[in-house]
Amino acid sequence: MPALLIKNGLAVDPVRGEARLDLLLEGGRVARLSPRIPPPRGAAVFDAAGLWVFPGFIDVHVHAREPGAEGSETIATAAEAAAAGGVTSVLLMPNTSPAMAAPALLRRYAARAAAAPVNVYFSAAATSGRAGAAPAPLAALKRAGARAFTDDGAALPPRLLPELIRRAAALGVPLLDHPEDFALTGRGVCHPRAAARLGLPPIPDRAEWLAVLRGALAAAGAGPLHLQHLSLAASLAALRLAKRAGWPVTGETCPHYFALSERDIRRDDANFKMKPPLRSEADRLAVVKALADGTLDIIATDHAPHAAALKAGGFRRAPFGVVGLETLAPLCVTELALKRAVTRPRLAALLSGNPARLLGLRRKGSLAPGSDADVTVLDPRRARPVPPLFASRSANSPFVGRRLAGWPVLTVVGGRVVHAAR
């Protein structure tokens, strides 16, 4: 493929910081990053004046619904949504039907995903059949291509957690946990204050933070653990203390937890139903602080598409989850960078550098020469409302109509443009 020269942009790197530089992509890698690079013969040139140039965003929490719920999403449509959203790599969750818990199944779908416009990686179930009774064949799943282990959608069983942590660590594969005590959640569907307003069953806060404490304690004695979709000030306080103690625990949050709170739920609209639920305004502010101060390591979408008919049942009957791949960039720019809550290099770490480190993607997450030519270019100047339709097969978003800036204008994967918009 021809070389691509991205000129005049603000290059933002999680380690090197930011500067107005030209970026030359050649042979699938970053070839040069310096001021005023002359265009090589035959190179395509993209003028990024006024734009922000990031290492390609890596989303470590995506549900593609295939196999089993292709009416809501497929690997192909999730990949198209990722490209449109400036996401160059995705990690798919294993709570499919059947669960991604067998090496042969994993190999089959990894082969299908090879044609996607973005890098598609798979996590595999941490327990056999994702049933929580016994460890899955982790070594065989790693050989089949698993980049992470998780029972996401279900919490890892406390009695198995130390053993799962040790086994995953021995294989050099990250273990991801959905921290929730389902016995406490019960039939709850939203934050207690929203539940009181709407006459719905609540989800108590302690269902999350008790599980976070349990996970952090297990990591202290067994090895690394990554905690998914953290949403509470109490959870973040526990994570902060664990890190100060030197325990090998990391954490992620999602854009809806720094951009919304339970006060935004004004009616029985299941597009606001996700798990964990939207929390208090104090929790939202605590998430923003934790993103800025290094307590949280990663922003991931927990992209969870559901067909409109499924979400039409309201909070009581609809499934949990919202789409997020296509609103990731503008929510981060509008709610964090433009409000100066998080610096651009820190945003590059949260969206690119740290996710690459978690998954062991050594040539991703950076604009340094020699890195993979995965690049996300954003426009911070132009704002527009979130549209009602998405590249995703589903449109269950609480952000439809919200005016946001920072939309992707160019997504490059391996030096090839997979999305371009102006």
Notable traits:
422 residues, TIM Barrel, alpha/beta, Urease, subunit C, domain 1
Describe the protein's architecture and organization.
This protein has 422 residues and is α/β, with parallel strands linked by helices. It folds into two domains: 4-52 and 372-420, Urease, subunit C, domain 1 (Roll); 56-359, Alpha-Beta Barrel (TIM Barrel), CATH 3.20.20. Helix content is 31%, strand content 23%. The protein has 14 helices and 16 strands. The protein has helices spanning 75-84, 103-113, 138-143, 161-171, 182-185, 192-198, 206-222, 233-244, 255-259, 281-293, 308-311, 314-317, 328-337, 344-359, and strands spanning 4-13, 17-26, 29-34, 44-47, 52-55, 57-62, 87-92, 119-124, 148-150, 175-177, 225-227, 249-253, 298-299, 375-385, 403-413, 416-420. The strands form two sheets. Strands 1, 2, 3, 4, 5, 14, 15 and 16 form an eight-stranded mixed β-sheet that branches. It has an eight-stranded parallel β-sheet with strand order 6-7-8-9-10-11-12-13. A hairpin with a 3-residue loop joins β1 (4-13) and β2 (17-26). α4 (161-171) packs across α7 (206-222), α7 (206-222) packs parallel to α8 (233-244) and α8 (233-244) runs parallel beside α10 (281-293). The longest helix is centred in the middle third of the chain and has 17 residues, at 206-222. 56% of the residues are buried. The mean pLDDT is 97.
